[in-house]
Design goal:
The protein folds into 4 domains: about 35 residues, no CATH class; about 120 residues, Elongation Factor Tu (Ef-tu), domain 3 (Beta Barrel); about 60 residues, Beta Barrel (OB fold (Dihydrolipoamide Acetyltransferase, E2P)); about 130 residues, Helix Hairpins (Orthogonal Bundle), CATH 1.10.287. Helix 4 runs antiparallel to helix 8 and helix 5 packs antiparallel against helix 6. Strand 9 and strand 10 form a beta hairpin. The strands form 2 sheets. It has a 6-stranded antiparallel β-barrel with strand order 1-8-11-10-9-12. It has a 4-stranded antiparallel β-sheet with strand order 5-4-2-7. The protein is of the alpha+beta class. The chain has 9 helices and 12 strands.
Length: about 425
């Protein structure tokens, strides 16, 4: 009897909550209830992901300030430049000739104004007449030299063209001989030495044609710039001396003095404009950055027009990354939230920034799923220039802590509140 008492005590059935938990179904419900309670209070970070692309924070388009020829290029793709560094030197002989012409006109106008202010003396008239004669002689001589230079250039060009034509004919004949002897050699009719002699002649003719072509190019490149500049300067000197003599003969009146002052001021303004244009031909970088344009030296010698794009300089020590976020997720995104990026080029490295802007309108996705996307912008410090323009990857926006229950049900709740709501 006493031996059976403990067994009865141990076998006594449990009651209340303990008995409920012992049942398999009830135990599962209890575990689920505990997990549900925990999920409603345990926080977890909400992250929103999207594809991103990198853009430079600052970029400068280097455009031609005037119509000119690119005479020198000082940089190449990938070079680092500072603000003010020389990129290109442009050249335009017409601008230089225009500056000399305006300077001559300005000197003449200033001389006229000075004479009007000082009055006229007989010895000044005689001296001015002598200067006119000298200027006429100089202009006549300059024009003669220019005509002779043009004739010489035309002769050189004609001779060079004839030399090129002759060299081409000789080369054609030599190459025809070479082809004929090649067939004879292949047929075993002639010896290798004979073919080598004919082949050597063809090589010599080819070199002669190249030399003739170079001579023609040199003749065509002679633009007679020095002779033209001398003729232009002589014409300006003649205008100046004639204006001075006319002024001495006419005498001075108040309205003439005012007109002369106006002419001087107008020419000074024109000269300042031309000087600015000539100064702008030294094209400099407006800001610090990296030269991004490919094959820059292919532009050497090309004519560019005002506004033509010559190069691009990007400053990407700080870059801008734009993430495309589905419109359904944008409600959780706010300016100031942390963003982490992983570029495809650097899978083991994360770049961190903050949301700085959210686009005011949605755009269509490019993945063919007919979704609406919102651009979210961040700025990333890039001191080692690892992130480069147009790089892509995946980004995550850390939108703050939510309960696990909220994270698990947020999409269903959103669907219920929007799509299901529309049924009523």
């Amino acid at each position: 009897m006493s031996d059976q008492l403990p067994a009865r005590i141990i076998a006594r059935p449990k009651t209340g909550l303990a008995a409920l938990i012992e049942k398999p179904r009830s135990r599962k419900l209890a575990i689920f209830a505990v997990l549900l309670a925990l999920s409603s209070v345990v926080p977890m970070e909400l992250t929103i992901s999207g594809e991103f692309e990198v853009y430079p924070e600052h970029n400068a388009d280097i455009r031609a300030p005037v119509e000119a020829v690119i005479a020198e290029i000082f940089v190449k793709e990938g070079d680092a430049v500072e603000a003010g560094d020389m990129l290109f030197q442009l050249s335009n002989p017409d601008h230089e000739a225009k500056r000399q012409d305006i300077r001559a006109q300005l000197a003449a106008a200033q001389a006229r104004l000075d004479l009007l202010v000082e009055g006229t003396r007989s010895e000044e008239i005689n001296l001015a007449a002598s200067e006119v004669e000298t200027a006429q002689s100089r202009l006549s001589h300059a024009r003669t030299m220019l005509r002779e230079a043009e004739v010489m250039r035309d002769q050189k060009t004609s001779q060079a063209r004839q030399a090129v034509a002759l060299a081409k004919d000789q080369l054609d004949f030599a190459e025809a001989d070479r082809d004929r002897y090649q067939k004879l050699l292949e047929g075993g009719i002639i010896a290798q030495q004979k073919f080598s002699e004919i082949d050597q002649i063809a090589r010599i003719r080819r070199g002669a044609l190249a030399d003739s072509q170079a001579g023609l190019n040199m003749a065509l490149a002679d633009d007679l710039g020095e002779a033209r500049r001398e003729a232009s300067a002589a014409a300006g000197a003649l205008r100046e001396s004639r204006a001075r003599l006319d002024l001495l003969h006419a005498g001075s009146r108040g309205e003439e003095i005012e007109a002369a002052k106006s002419a001087v001021e107008n020419l000074e303004a024109q000269l300042a404009l031309v000087e600015d244009e000539l100064a702008s031909m030294a094209v400099r970088s407006p800001e610090r950055g990296i030269v991004m344009t490919e094959h820059l030296h292919d532009l050497l010698g090309q004519l560019v027009h005002r506004g033509d794009l010559m190069a691009e300089v990007y400053d990407f020590r700080v870059v801008r990354a734009e993430l495309l976020i589905p419109e359904k997720e944008i409600g959780a995104v706010a300016v100031g939230q942390t963003i982490r990026l992983k570029a495809r080029a650097y899978p083991g490295r994360a770049f961190e920034g903050q949301v700085v802007a959210i686009a005011p309108r949605a755009i269509d996705s490019t993945d063919g799923l007919s979704r609406k996307m919102i651009r979210v912008t961040t700025e990333i410090a890039n001191p080692d220039l690892a992130l480069k323009p147009a790089m892509t990857g995946q980004g995550k926006i850390y939108a703050g802590n939510r309960s696990i229950l909220n994270l698990m049900t947020r999409r269903f709740v959103r669907y219920f509140r929007v799509e299901f709501w529309s049924w009523w």
